[in-house]
């Protein structure tokens, strides 16, 4: 199988439980909840997406003929150090492309493999870290994992239902739009009212990282 990647880069994980950790990010092209075109945003399920995942023209991006080629690129971004190798597969929606060959090849190269997904497709069973960010109006089938990240506020989300899913960590992240300050306060109030949840912020944006 070939893979379409928008961009690939070495950075620090900016969100969630793994925040601050050195990581290679692989952003796959394409998503099943929004075309990525601004003309379609108003009617998209994930209308608040803040990521460009269209095409393969980003830094480090491209079309990779097979898993070996993609892992070679990931390895090049990480460098020769073999300690604590960590790769985050994101998008778009990475589960449109992630398969056995890629996960196995990344493991063979010594990487711990994480995914950030909308949960509408089953996560690969051999991933090391599964982060699901549910979107109102979508059918989430991946209801177990390591980290459930809820962008807030988000009309139409049934929070009580989410709390019944099997995740080790429940996180709330303020929606980053023109009402960001209000959204921060709403997220704080959410956590104060629901002690099972934790607040997470997009620290990479604060630090000027990708």
Indicate the CATH topology.
Answer: TIM Barrel
Mean pLDDT, all residues? 97
User: Span between N and C termini?
Assistant: 28 Å
For the report, how would you describe the main beta sheet? 9 strands, mixed
Structural class assignment? alpha/beta
Strand order of the largest sheet: 3-1-2-4-5-6-7-8-9
* H and E order: EEEHEHEEEHEHEH
User: What does the radius of gyration come to?
Assistant: 17 Å
Q: Quick one: how many beta strands?
A: 9
CATH superfamily: Aldolase class I
CATH class: Alpha Beta
Strand fraction band? 25-35%
Given as residue ranges, the uncertain stretches (5+ residues, pLDDT < 50) are none
Give the second-level CATH assignment, the architecture: Alpha-Beta Barrel
Molecular shape: globular
Helix content: 10-25%
Characterise the protein shown here:
This protein is an alpha/beta fold. It has a single domain, classed as Aldolase class I (TIM Barrel, Alpha-Beta Barrel). Helix content is 21%, strand content 27%. It has 5 helices and 9 strands. It has helices at residues 67-78, 100-108, 159-162, 180-193, 203-207, and strands spanning 3-12, 22-28, 62-64, 86-90, 112-117, 129-132, 144-152, 166-174, 197-199. A 9-stranded mixed β-sheet has the order 3-1-2-4-5-6-7-8-9. Helix 2 links the parallel strand 4 and strand 5.
């Amino acid at each position: 199988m070939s893979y379409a990647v928008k961009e690939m880069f070495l950075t620090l994980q900016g969100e969630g439980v793994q925040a601050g950790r050195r990581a290679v990010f692989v952003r796959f092209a394409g998503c099943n909840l929004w075309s990525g075109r601004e003309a379609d945003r108003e009617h998209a399920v994930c209308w608040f997406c803040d990521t460009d995942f269209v095409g393969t023209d980003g830094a480090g991006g491209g079309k990779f003929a097979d898993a070996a080629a993609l892992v070679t690129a990931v390895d090049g971004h990480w460098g020769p150090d073999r300690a604590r190798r960590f790769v985050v597969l994101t998008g778009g929606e990475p589960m449109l492309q992630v398969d056995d060959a890629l996960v196995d090849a990344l493991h063979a190269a010594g990487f711990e493999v994480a995914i950030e997904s909308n949960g509408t497709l089953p996560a690969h069973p051999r991933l090391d870290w599964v982060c699901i960010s549910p979107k109102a109006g979508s059918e989430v089938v991946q209801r177990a994992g390591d980290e459930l990240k809820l962008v807030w506020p988000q009309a139409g989300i049934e929070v009580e239902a989410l709390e019944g899913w099997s995740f080790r960590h429940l996180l709330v992240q303020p929606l980053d739009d023109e009402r960001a300050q209000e959204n921060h306060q709403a997220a704080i109030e959410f956590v104060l009212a629901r002690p099972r949840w934790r607040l997470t912020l997009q620290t990479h944006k604060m630090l000027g990282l990708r």
